[in-house]
Design a protein that fits this description.
The chain has 162 residues and is mostly helical. The protein has seven helices and three strands, in the order αβββαααααα. It has a three-stranded antiparallel sheet, with no helix packed on it.
């Protein structure tokens, strides 16, 4: 696992804390951001950070191509995958870097991301994610938290740009 995955995971754990069972959250029982709905065979109450990290690496980091993305872009794509889904995250990335939009990370998306100005791509990505949030039904309940998280991740992503 690359150094940026560890940094990204630590940033994610800042926002995805311990055990939560909010009846208004469609994910249901959740720990470290891993929901019972998405992982019905995982004992959420006994989930460790190490196991959550393995899930995040295999099911979010890898499918979104984060290992090959420029620093900063990898973090914002990863966090969005966790918060909004891998398909949505890749689509926003593709829109942000001018790649064809199909929701599947591949060589064309990677090439467009590598050619992009990292800071501009991150800013565009953040704006598009904010617009996506604005369309969600749960915005009144969770919107302020989502926007705080997005603002924090935006700054963290910019700090990773080399």
């Amino acid at each position: 696992m690359r150094e940026n995955f560890k940094k990204s995971l630590n940033a994610l754990f800042y926002w995805e804390g311990g055990y939560v069972n909010d009846p208004n959250d469609p994910g249901g029982k959740t720990k470290y951001g891993i929901s019972k709905r998405a992982y019905p065979n995982v004992d959420i109450s006994k989930l460790t950070k190490k196991k959550a990290g393995e899930i995040y690496f295999n099911d979010y980091w890898e499918p979104c191509g984060c290992e090959d993305l420029p620093a900063g872009i990898d973090l914002i794509v990863f966090d969005t995958a966790v918060n909004c889904g891998t398909d949505k995250s890749v689509r926003i990335l593709q829109e942000s870097v001018g790649s064809s939009v199909d929701g599947v990370y591949g060589p064309n998306t990677q090439a467009a991301a590598e050619k992009s100005n990292q800071q501009s791509a991150i800013k565009e990505f953040v704006a598009r994610r904010a617009v996506y949030y604005g369309k969600l039904a749960k915005l009144d309940r969770f919107g302020l938290g989502w926007m705080r998280r997005l603002a924090d991740m935006h700054q963290r992503a910019l700090n990773l740009v080399k």
